[in-house]
Amino acid sequence: MARFRFLERWRRPVEPADERDHTVFVLSGGSVRGAAQAGMIRVLLEHGIVPDEVVGVSAGALNGTFLAANPTVEQARLLEGVWRDVADRKPIRG
Hints:
Blueprint: E1 24-27, H1 31-46, E2 53-56, H2 59-69, H3 73-88
Parallel strand pairs: 1-2
Helix pairs in contact: 1-2, 1-3
């Protein structure tokens, strides 16, 4: 693939997974997924799994912003409360 040779200068060697110590939470979009993510985030934090980076889209971006501001179990519980409040308002689905 000669036409892609210019990309070679940007390629970096990849370390085996067992030599990495970088945790990233990748949060997808979708309101129901966003609500489920809140619980999963809490459980991960309760088990001492704290992200070095958070990446998200749509509802995941909202969760990620909330989490990145203060990645603690207490913050995750607040996030769960936000999603409960949203569910209690019974948003219109369409």
